[in-house]
Design the sequence.
């Protein structure tokens, strides 16, 4: 059977190894059925090479729970898009955010919609607020079956678009006015209307805001997300928010650098801090030093005996 290595990213599989399964895989891709999408694995044919992409989720696709049951189309659709609550934002996982802290695609979509609601009225461009909110809510609906691709996955724009188009069509085409919502998603993908351009920037803004939250929580260094969005905000009002986030980030880094420079046990002092470009020797407990965060120099030998858990006499500490 088709399995993954359990690791994130792409696992290359030689076509000969999948010969007996090729027909079944091709059918699954063409129809975008859930048989091979157990909640952790997506199978995609990229040119002549087969790839297995592991998507980390909280659970498998909920729609599988309705197999063989007679129910309403709206219930079916709900069980499909409920999967966005199960699907982690894969980029965070790939950059060291542990699953228990990682947001889902549904949480991201909600935040995009809320930001769009709050910022649409003050946006410099004239946008249809209702259309903006609708677009924000459905912009990632194609990830239900396609998964949440990241730049490191090796899926090009056209492949990503087609997979997500198949996904959103499968979900919405069976519903009344489904064509309206599919067309609205298509408008977002094309990015030509003022509403689409606004929501696409909000999508990027929400990502970097979440990166800021994670960094403030001390969960990871997410510099890459700030760098990748540095030129994404054409609207002055949105760019000003990004600039403030960068300023906050720089301030936090400056505090961290200062703290690091102060928590060094070196030279012949029991402890020192930088004061007006000079070194002042003090007792570690005077500044409520957390011993777990103190960095000792290899050459450290205290010259004055002090009563502090930060210092062990007769031993070099690192």
Sequence:
């Amino acid at each position: 059977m088709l399995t993954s290595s359990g690791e994130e990213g792409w696992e290359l599989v030689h076509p000969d190894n999948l010969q007996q399964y090729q027909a079944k895989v091709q059918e699954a891709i063409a129809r975008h059925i859930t048989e091979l999408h157990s909640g952790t694995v997506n199978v995609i044919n990229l040119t002549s090479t087969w790839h297995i992409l592991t998507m980390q989720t909280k659970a498998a696709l909920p729609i599988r729970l309705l197999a063989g049951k007679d129910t309403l189309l709206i219930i079916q659709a709900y069980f499909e898009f409920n999967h966005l609550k199960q699907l982690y934002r894969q980029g965070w996982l790939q950059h060291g955010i542990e699953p228990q802290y990682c947001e889902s695609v549904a949480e991201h979509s909600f935040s995009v919609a809320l930001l769009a609601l709050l910022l649409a009225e003050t946006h410099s461009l004239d946008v249809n607020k209702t259309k903006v909110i609708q677009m924000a809510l459905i912009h990632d609906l194609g990830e239900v079956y396609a998964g949440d691709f990241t730049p490191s996955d090796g899926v090009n724009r056209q492949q990503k678009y087609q997979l997500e188009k198949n996904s959103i069509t499968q979900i919405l085409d069976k519903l009344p006015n489904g064509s309206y919502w599919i067309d609205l998603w298509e408008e977002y993908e094309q990015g030509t209307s003022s509403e689409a351009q606004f929501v696409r920037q909000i999508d990027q803004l929400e990502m970097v805001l979440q990166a800021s939250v994670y960094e403030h929580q001390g969960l990871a260094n997410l510099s890459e997300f700030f760098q990748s969005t540095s030129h994404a905000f054409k609207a002055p009002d949105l760019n000003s928010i990004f600039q403030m986030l960068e300023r906050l980030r720089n301030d936090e880094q400056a505090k961290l650098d200062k703290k690091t420079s102060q928590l060094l046990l070196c030279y012949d002092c029991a402890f020192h801090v930088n004061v007006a470009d000079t070194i002042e020797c003090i007792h570690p407990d005077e500044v409520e030093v957390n011993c777990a965060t103190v960095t000792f120099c290899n050459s450290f030998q205290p010259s004055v005996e002090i009563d502090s858990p930060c210092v062990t006499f007769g031993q070099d500490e690192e």
